[in-house]
């Protein structure tokens, strides 16, 4: 779907979403069946009219049944979607923003970063527009930025993505978006969050390390922190709450550490998922041992499961490692389709919902 570009605070033909009406086929089916039966039995016109009135009364229930039969069907957001642009360092950057119909008094801001080859709109779809729905119910702003040539400049020294090779200042892009919505929406500076998938998760790590003064909590899906020999970020000055969600059978990002990339692609080595989590535990100076728990048991023979290690200490940022046992390079979510060669997707686990719960917990840290 094409979007018109709009500038700061401008709005051009915004998309307003509403729940789709009941399929006309349901109405036609009831209408035709009742009418045909009446005609075949030579029932009087008043009787037919009474039947039709009863059908009208039944239709809302039929629509509700149809919706209940599809529990994983995405509910259309009710807010406004815009394609927007912003000037950062002399370069025009673009993004998609969802603003709910009713903002909270001091709303949160959520930045969602796509993987390599993607876009703001594509990660919006990959997450099932669930963050839009959450924004509608919680009253926050969600932004889906577009990477430079569909990529992000992250902390991996050996990364071959265009943004990295062109030395694009994506941290300045993120800071520019935060500044914009601090002015335009009055966001709460203590409720700025970031989510990233794959290459976007690598950039989310960069935000956690270099922009912890403005980003309060971060979630990284399908990515490990670069190993010391592959690490090229500024020294962190602030600790943030961090959620890491990795699959044990990820062919692109090795769960236990090693070379990141598929086939001949080599974006350098990353640390294991557990060591990546411990990196942020040390930054937060958490001394408590993690609490391990099973978040989701396998729902069928051979199915995937999810466990969590959670580090929490009063007055300090929290760190969580979600392990998707048997999971591949994907965003776990109901109805999510996997990509060829990228491993299994856990469709019994709803990661956008779980991530938002973590952010709400982190808001109290």
Automatic annotation (TrEMBL):
InterPro entries in the cross-refs: AB_hydrolase_fold, Dienelactn_hydro, Plant_Biomass_Hydrol_Est
Q: Name one Pfam family in it.
A: DLH
Q: Which Gene3D superfamilies does the record cross-reference, listed alphabetically?
A: alpha/beta hydrolase (3.40.50.1820)
Keyword Cell inner membrane carried by entry: no
Q: Which UniProt keywords apply?
A: Signal
Q: Which GO terms describe its molecular function?
A: hydrolase activity
Cite the residue spans of the region called Disordered.
Answer: 1-23
Residue ranges constituting the Dienelactone hydrolase domain according to the UniProt record? 133-253
Protein name per its UniProtKB record: Polyhydroxybutyrate depolymerase
**Organism, as annotated:** Dyella tabacisoli
